[in-house]
Amino acid sequence: MLCALALLSATAPLATDMYLPGLPIMSESLGTSTVGIQLTLTTFMAGLGIGQLITGPLSDGWGRRRLLVIGTIVLAVSSAMCALAPAVEVLIAARAIQGFSGGIGIVLARAVIADRTSGHESARLFSVMMIIGGIAPIAAPVIGGALLDPIGWRGIFWVLTGASIAMLVGVLAFIPETLPPEKRHGGGFAALASNFGYVLGNRRFIGYAAAFALGFGALFAYISASPFVVQNVLGMSATQFSLVFAANSVGLVTANIINTRLIGRFEVRSLLLFGVTLMLTAGTLLLVTTVIFGAHRWLLLPLLFAVVLSLGFTMGNSTALGQGEVPSAAGTGSAIMGASQFGLAAIVSPLVGLGGEDTAIPMTIAIVVSAGLAMTALLTLTREART
């Protein structure tokens, strides 16, 4: 079951990382600007956020499994629409639908784990799921770069269609219903409003959710800008970019493995603080060195690696701590975390492209601001109340 849940959580990296090497080519193929192509990332992330925000609370009343089945079917259809898109406007709309349906799998994968576990076990499972799901960001850009020449960017979306069908098979075969009828809230607007009020009224949940979303904001600043920074600013090829992206993904998976080993020896919140501190430190050094010395390959790439590495101590731990604060509304809590995560990513994506294709400074600023706000949220909202 855990592997099937990890595959559902891999929706975002699969649907972004596989076509990242082809972004410059897509811009020429569809006759649009860099900002226009980056909007395909923006609408996808916005769809992910909206899909989670709607589906998570609904699943607290309807159950998890049937919504997962519907979501994966729509994901396969929308992926095929992306492959057939004749213009960038159609692609942007298809990506929004793809994001919405992919968000169903992401939000409910977290809710299923929250239904079954809590505490250190929950943190460990979220980290293990990120390790399994981490295969996607490692393999996706390498596969995308290798497939770009023989099958083109449209062929990459056909591959994503096949992956969506595999997700559907995994849901049908391995994921049972984890929310029994007696634990469902019964539906209705009043119940949904009550769940949202319960979750949003928890100060500590808000702090952990903010750290989770802002950590992803820093990661997505890197994801959306790195194809242009690595290829246009550092002068590397699409294949070299894929290898750089894969190396950073290996670092993320390795950090998650280390995190799972440290859970139990250290408090989960301490591991989370370490991750955010590393992200802020590496991001600040990245900004300072880029402004002073320019975008030099052997300065920029190691610091980007450290930023991505820090997410291995941030994402799983903040998810477990946040979900642990609202155990009776796991779907709603997961939805709010996911909606804030991908909503912020949708904002970050076009912002890092405002400086054009020949600078890394907007990306570094976005990373530092995200990390700084994440640290502020942790220190102010999740501290223990004084007695």
Order of helices and strands: HHHHHHHHHHHHHHHH
Work out the strand percent.
under 5%
The CA-CA distance between the termini, in Å, is 42 Å
Rg over CA atoms, rounded to whole Å, is 20 Å
Can you tell me about this structure?
- By secondary structure, this protein is an all-alpha fold.
- Helix content is 82%, strand content 0%.
- It is built from 16 helices and no strands.
- α4 (34-62) packs parallel to α6 (88-116) and α11 runs parallel beside α13.
Give a quick precis of the structure.
The chain has 387 residues and is mostly helical. Helices cover 82% and strands 0% of the residues. The radius of gyration is 20 Å and the shape is globular.
List keywords for this structure.
387 residues; mainly alpha; 16 helices; single chain
Q: How are the SSEs ordered, and which strands pair?
A:
Blueprint: H1 2-9, H2 11-17, H3 23-29, H4 34-62, H5 65-84, H6 88-116, H7 119-133, H8 135-174, H9 189-200, H10 203-233, H11 238-262, H12 268-293, H13 297-310, H14 315-325, H15 330-351, H16 361-381
